[in-house]
Amino acid sequence: MSSTDKPGAGRWRWLSGGRQRRQEEVILMMLCALSIPSILPFGIYRLLQGSWASAIVDMALVLAMSSVIVHVWRTGRYQVASVCVTIFYTGGMLFTVYLRGVGLVYWVYPTMISAYFVLRPSVALTINSIGLGVLVAVLYGRVEMLNLATIIVTVGLVNLFAYIFSYRTGVQNRRLHNAAELDFLTGVGNRRALERHLAEYAQERRPQLESSLLLLDLDHFKQVNDQYGHAAGDKVLMRLAELMRRHTRSSDRIFRYGGEEFAIIASGAGLNAAASLAEGLRGAVATATLQEDHPITISIGVSYMDKKQTPAEWLAQADKMLYAAKQGGRNAVRVAS
Ligand SMILES: Nc1nc2c(ncn2[C@@H]2O[C@H](COP(=O)(O)OP(=O)(O)OP(=O)(O)O)[C@@H](O)[C@H]2O)c(=O)[nH]1
Predict the structure, then answer these.
(1) Residue of 222, 262, 285 to test ligand 1 pocket, by largest number of atoms within 8 Å of CB
(2) Pocket test for ligand 1, best of 260, 262, 296, 300 (most atoms within 8 A of CB)
(3) Residue limits of the GGDEF domain (predicted)?
(4) Which ligand 1 atom minimizes the distance to the CA of 233?
(5) How does pLDDT run across 120-170, given as a tens digit for each residue?
(6) What is the pLDDT of residue 21?
(7) In terms of CB atoms within 10 Å, which of 66, 139, 166, 194 comes out highest?
(8) Are 207 and 315 within 8 A, CB to CB?
(9) Residue 74 to residues 16, 23, 201: CA-CA distances in angstroms?
(10) What is the DSSP letter of 309?
(11) What are the pLDDT digits (tens) for 228-261?
């Protein structure tokens, strides 16, 4: 069984709730879950003390974090929730310092570091810089200048180190991702990336989002290699990938499925739209010069990514159509009915 057949496979399966979750979702939910036992005891203590304002802030944070966990768990949407969580945390932390004084400034450090776990480094740095500005305004006149300067410098340094660490980790992650999922010759996604995207689409919950799968294969490509050499064949593959990029939308995803075989996930395209896309690509390749003095054509099989079927079935159907296009004389498009 290939990875396209396994919903919920992988490292985060135990938290998947039936589908494979992105790492970002899991980190956000864990961060929120961790904040509940960290804040709740203080909220209860403040309640017992009768410090109503502090207790309300703590309880509101606990409630907000619980809501975020439920929201992310149910919808899988984490981007806006990540910004909201950071703003809740920062606001709660600043209000607590405002209410109870500089003694609670220790909360600033974990709060600010947590932003780098769930946001892009530049966004986290921006929110934290605004938070630091508000903190200085809150504490100004309430603590000695030397004390305030120490807080500013230490908070600033913590942010600087967290930013550098988070930025470098992001760069390394992108490099690893590219090495694992990009085809080194053409720069489009590789087969592993295709399988991941198909599995993600199979678990996508928006019923109105329809997509189609195109499998493209160069016709008689062996002749190009035999006649002009392997390096010339490589150039043809690169030019074809470039042509596909130009003739697809930015939401479509292109992959190299095998040696001279490519796949396109036409996002948001039903069968008719996908058939027009395929026909346009076929015509564009037929009229382009991918190899001087040698006309090159492609054959394309198209299948509809029906949610009632599995990714393996979409691939098998598109492959069957591709085979039919080849059998029909090549330089042709066949669409699954
Ligand atoms: N240059 C180059 N050639 C490749 C690469 N991967 C596969 N090929 C070649 O692609 C050719 C595929 O040949 P076949 O499977 O016979 O297919 P074909 O000649 O395209 O014929 P049809 O698909 O039946 O139209 C072989 O010559 C492979 O060497 C690659 O990365 N670079």
Answers:
(1) 222
(2) 260
(3) 209-337
(4) 1
(5) 999 999 999 999 999 999 999 999 999 999 999 999 999 999 999 999 999
(6) 79
(7) 194
(8) no
(9) 10, 15, 17
(10) S
(11) 999 999 999 999 999 999 999 999 999 999 899 9
- Ligand 1 atom 12: residue of nearest CA: 222
Q: What is the pTM of this model?
A: 0.74
- Ligand 1 binding pocket includes 218 (Cβ within 6 Å): yes
Please answer whether residues 97 and 139 qualify as being in contact, where contact means their C-beta atoms are separated by less than 8 angstroms.
yes
Contact 321, 303 (CB under 8 A): yes
* Residue 17 pLDDT greater than 70, yes or no: no
Q: What percent of the chain has pLDDT over 70?
A: 93
| pLDDT tens per residue across span 32-62 | 999 899 899 999 999 999 999 989 989 999 9
Is the CB of 234 within 6 Å of ligand 1? yes
The CB of 225 under 6 Å from ligand 1? The reply is yes
Determine which residue's CA is closest to atom 7 belonging to ligand 1.
Answer: 259
Going from the N-terminus, what domains does the chain have, and what CATH number goes with each?
A: 3-181 (no CATH), 191-335 (3.30.70.270)
Q: Is 67 in the pocket of ligand 1 (CB under 6 A)?
A: no
